[in-house]
Each structure stands twice: as C-alpha cells, then as structure tokens.
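User
Take a look at the entry that follows and flag anything odd:
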Amino acid sequence: MTEFGSSTDLETLRRSGRGKFIVLGVLIAGALGAAAWTFLKKGGIGNPEEAGKVLVVTRGTHVGVSLTLKEAGFETGEGTLDAWVNKAKDDVPELEVTGVAAVMALADRFGWGFVVFESPSEVDFSGLEFEGGAPTIPADTKWAAVSVGDFAFPHVLTRNPAPSKVLRDGSLPLLQALFEQKQLAALRKPESLAVDQLQLRDKLEEAMRRLNQIPDAERLGEKVVHDIDKTLADSDRVEPKPTRVGATLESLTAQPLADGSVLSIGRSLAVVTRDAVRADLDLGDAETFLVGAPMAAATDRVPCTGLAGGSVQVGDLRALAWSDDGSTVLLSTSASGDSLWTLDAAKPGVCAWSKLGTVPLPRVGLDGPPVPSRSGRVARVGSIDGRGVVVVARPGEPDVELGMLESTVLSNLVWLDDEHLAAVADYEVDNSAWIAVFSLRDPTRVVVMPAAVADSSQGISQIAAVPGRSALVAVTFDGRLVRIDLPSTLAELIASPPMAADKVPLVAAGRPTIYELDRGRFTSKTLTDQDGISDLVIARDGKRAAMTVRGESVDPDAPNDGEIAVVDLETGGLRLLTRNDLRDDDPAFTADGRHIVFETRVEMPRSDWTITAARIVPTDAP
C-alpha cells in the first residue's frame, strides 16, 4: 500500500496550492481560517493532485491491478472500497462522510489525481457531485475514472469505451478510462505540452504505447481478413474460380444434402492479437449448422435447427458421418452417443430432419469409421476373433453380422445400394487383394473378386459404386482410376455367383460361404492413370467421378498440394477444377451433379493457424 504520510506534516501543508493553506510572507494558521477557506473554495483540501497518481478501488475480483498501472508508469495504490474507507477514517479522522465520498476525500488530501473504480455500475456514487449531473454507467463498463480535487470540481467521470475486439490486453479498459480524462488525454498530443507535462508524458510512455496498439491491432485484423479473402479469390489458375460457401471468419466444412441444398458445419472465428504484431484466433464454442442453396451468399444461409437443434458444443461433438447422397447422418456426441438422423421429405420447411434413434456404440474390434446408408442403417468393418467382419446396425433392431472372413483385413467399406455393401479385402496369408461384396438379404454368402478385375491391378485402395449401373470404380495401388463392369446385377451376383470352372465355394461351419468370382467375367476400363488419387466420390447420376489428385504430374513445384478433379466415367480423361498452391480435398457432388463442394486449407497470415474454408465450383466448366 502506498504511504500517505502524516496529516500534520508542515511541508505537506505548505505545498497545498490553490484552495489550501496559503503562505503570504508569514504562515497564517488556525483551524478557523482553514475551515473558512475550505468552505469558500470548492476544490482540493490537501496536496496538489498529480495526474500520474491513481488510486484503484476494486470489487475484490481483480488482484494486482496496481502492478499493471505501475508497469505503465503510474504511481498507484490498490484496495477494496471498504479497505479505502477504513484508511480514510484512520488518516482523515475529521471527515464526516463515508463510502465513495470518503475515498475521494482521502485521495484529495494526499494528492491522488484520479480514483478508478472496477465495475462502476455497481458503485454508489450518490454522495458525489458530477459535472453534467449524475452519470449513466452501462452495466458492461469495466472501469471508470473519477477526477480528484483541483483537477475538476464537480468531479468528472470517464469510463472505458467498448473494448477492442482485436487487441486482447486486460489492462486496456483501465488505461482507456484514465486517458479519457483531459489531463491525460492531452499527453497524446505532445506538440502543445508544457515542460512538466512532457515529463509526465515520458513517465507514462508505456501506457500510451499500449493505447496506440489498439488502432494497430484493428488494422492487423482487417489485413488478415483481406489477405485470406484475396488468397481464396486469386489463388486459382483455372476458370471459373471456386467461390466460398461461408464467411471469411468461419472455419467450416460443407455437405451437399439430398434435397439440393448445402449444409455448412462450422465455428465462428475472431482475429485477435496480444501485441498488434502476431495474429491469433478466438474460436467459437459451438459447431453451428446453416443451410442454403449451393451458390447462396454466406448471409443468405439460415439456421438448420431441425438437426440437433442447430448446433453442437465443440467439446461434445465427436464426429459426423454422412450417407453418400447426404440424406442420412450419424451424429456422434459425448453426451448423447451415436444418433441417426434422416431428411424427412414429409416435413415442411428447410432442413427438415427426423431422428431415427440411437445406434449402440460399436463392439470392441469394430474400429472402422461408421458408414451410414440412405435406408437408415450404419455399417462398420473390423476384426473379431481374427476374422474380418461387417456389422450393420439400425436403431431399435438387432445388429446384423456379415462376412467373418478368416485372416482378412477389411477396409474402405461402401454401400453399393440399400441391400449390398463392398469392402477392400486384404488376405494376410498370401498378401493378395480382393473386393468383397456382402448382402443383407442373404448374409450366408459373400462373393469376392480379385483386385486384378481392375485392369490387372495388384491392389486396390478405394472403391465406389456407380449409381444406376452394375459397375464399380476403383483406385488402384499404382495410381489409376478404373471402372469395373460387373457381369450381372448385385442381386444376381449373390444368388448365382459366376465362378471359374476350377473353383469351388469355400464352406466353413458357422460362417458364410465364400464364392471366388471368375475374373474373366468382368470388363474394366482405365479412366485415368493420374497418380495420387484419393477422396473418390461418384455423382448421383452416375456420369462423373470427383477426387483429390496430387503429385508431380499435377504440380511439380508443390506435389503434396491437393487439387480437385473430375473424370467422365464413360470416356475417361481427367479435368482439374482447381489449380492453386493451397490444399484442396474432400470433394462432394451436389444432388444435381452440377457443383462440387470441397475443403480448402488456408494459412492465416502472421499466425500459426490454418483455417478450413468450404468452397464450391461448377462441374460443367470447359
């Protein structure tokens, strides 16, 4: 606590200045004379006020505020209102006032220039007289500064303006409230200052440096947003350029829905800084669902409250898994587990979702990602007792177990239609690669085809079904995209498996019978030999495939950057829809197949952050 000294200190009394004890050649002393002068002159009653001295009154919620002011150059003392009132009773015993008035009298006696109050809307200032009348103090005001003694009478109260949304410095509201006082505000214009004011300005240089960071921080925030927008708008070297689905200050993904709309799932962002040099981000605490037309502006999206109320807390959300057409989603949260939702065409309004129910958590060993179907089921692959299995769950129904393939690792599970699934199967005994097809109608059968059906490939990394056609599309180990034409429909393939003459069904007690299909019954076509293909998806009309491509043949200078490409499933030939130095991936067709929504990673300038932006591009561009 700052030492006040004795109230009977002669030198203190001699330096009292205007409205105080006056020395006119000889000392005129006496209680009657002093009382008369104080009564006639409404001003200070003690030491001259110093603008660099600040008395801090806290509500007990902040500790160490005085240290912040000392670092900024002020002389200061700190305490609660009750503590200062008790101090006033001890050091100014003749006072008959209490509360805030007592604190102000204490500050006046010992030359404090200003008293600052934490949460001033909660403070009773009724005992003071203010310039312009009683002040109105908004409830969200953090600090108010009140002038002392000769600096202003009636008192002048200033409060901090709205805090900067960019510069995060807890000391700023206090400094802002103080520098609204005219004695301190004048220091920010040094050209017209007297010598003593220039000395004070030098003393408070750190305080003004912090205040000057506010406009610098605002400019930094504007530049960061501008640079992100410019990067996304100008980076692509193809036409037409992709456009953004959301706003600049959002980190989001987007999912085309079966009804033709696009759902964005994202968190709000705020550019902040601690020093006006390096940028940082404050992230919203919820993933919010917004829906709009494919090319709708960010401001034209509306809340999708039909899905889980329209948002999920970030800490609660584990994952979202979508059916290939965007009609069904598995929403996984820590609080509620896995719930399955479907778009309900019978419901009026936009984004009309219905909850089908809760899906039990997977059994141990089912470590593959959940794969929802349009029909309201969820499938997973995994290993149980050393065998590759597929388990299909539906809310309110028993699980269905498919496969049980000995010494086989299953991956890349996909729904071929509402009744059939396929997965990449790696047989660990001889390291051979297969495509396995499973049927919900007949779980007792599994048909497998060697990876060689994909134009003599030695292995397959991803598969997808072609809607409306008895065909698959596969990404091979050697980087090709191959269309595989099946010899019959899926139902016929299961009911009457076309096996080679030298092959017999593999029968095992308690497990499905496995049928190895005749490779010669399949035809295939290599659509592109572009290496680095991933994220394969097929348009709902079965005419195009979209994917992420990377590698030196795409961009020799940045081979690891992903680009979005489309391939015609009939004629082949790859066409790039993006060409930039950013990381693009995870494409998805809109319901009509005319646009592709994808994700782009953007490095935020002057920071260590990378933002995920959702973008959309037409598929019919030349």
Observations:
- Confidence is low (pLDDT under 50) at residues 1-44.
